Amino acid sequence: MIMGLAVAGLIGISTHALAEESTSRKPNIVYILADDMGYGDVSVLNPESKIQTPNIDRLANEGMTFSDAHAGSSVCTPTRYGILTGRYCWRTRLKQKVLWNYDNSLMTPSRLNVASYLKQQGYHTAMIGKWHLGMDWASQSRPGEITDEEADVDFSKPFKNGPVDMGFDYFYGINASLDMPPYIFLKNDQVVTIPTVMKKNFGRSGLADQELEPEHFLPAFTQEAVSYIKTQDKKRPFFLYFSLNAPHTPIAPSKPFQGKSKLEGKLGQYADFCMEVDDTVGQVLAALEESGLSENTIVIFTADNGCAYYIGVKQFEQQGHFPSGIYRGYKGGTFEGGHRVPFLVRWPATVQPKTKNDQTICLTDLLATCADIVKEPLPKNAAEDSLSFLPALHGQTIDTSTRQGVVHHDFDGQFAIRKGKWKLLTKATEGLGTRKRLGNLPHLYDIQRDPGETKNVVNQHPEVVKELTALLEKYKRDSRSVQR
Description:
With 484 residues, the chain is of the alpha/beta class. The chain has 11 helices and 18 strands. The chain has a single domain (25-399), classed as Alkaline Phosphatase, subunit A.
């Protein structure tokens, strides 16, 4: 009996020691970024959603839901730049819109980003999926003069200033959105296959791999991510930036998901694709569990901006599905639906299950949060718009004394700024494809009382308009919004 108790005690000590060892190591970080997925497309965030997302919902049930999280822009390239660099993209050469197929890289190796920073801290770093931050392709005849129309790329040569030149140890993905050629897979700094078809159309006509169709990409990325997780050395932390091509156009669910939602028309196809995104999240969680990595792995699920109106949202809403949930606007606009995004965090070693947080955060905040996690300060010339949300994961209040407000930005380069309950839109825009004309006057909304942005109170609060205008101008002038 005594021996039994002793053995039980040793087992208890051993288990406790293993748990302590697991949580004392730097956590793995898996950042899953959906493409054009609305806040209301996630069933745990929208009780009226016609789309069920049980695996994404699981992150909420086992972790923390941030209800007031925002992309740095309401379109993809600027948001992606902000995620990696902790800096608003409108501080770069890209003042509006997005990069196109053969545009040169927006990133520079000299600027610290999440991958290069974590690599310095001993992490293995990988990027799988959609890059869309430009890369410097080799030209066959006119170096530095490649255009989308010419497509004068020498695909036999490596491209420069892509993910592996920015701190990622491994890259497998595509150069931009899946409706932008070339329609080929890329690996590290080269193409997997040289495109042989002159014109294939996944939304725009261009060069392609003859064997590839749109529905091949998400399953391939998912398989690659699962394989990456399962082959990691448990003694070394890893960072996986898993950037999906879905549910962005072309809306192309793979065969097992076609018709899975049992919804009709365009909504049915879109819902099927969202359900495949959800299944991808489930496969990632399963891979972590099978590898014994769940406990000390931070899994973040979010999106680069809201749902795109032009894919048929008018019909969606007629069928009772509102991809922006209770919020107004869509991808490309300054209203909430363009930039308020799902943001769910699971970290069993730290984050309590079924917790909710209503503090305002931005996708630019990842780099500062990583620095807080590994306890290695950032240089002053990096992450100018990044504020750590790690305190929230510990159940504490985020220290906003160093950043008073969060800036939003739209497709056309228009600004909005949020401070506390107030949101000022320098020009109100509904989103790409809506064709609504709202004039050039500023809009002011009390987001706490009016989250749907239905009542413009700009004339009732001139002092707030003056304060927020001055704050936005200060952030532009100072080249940073966070003071360190």
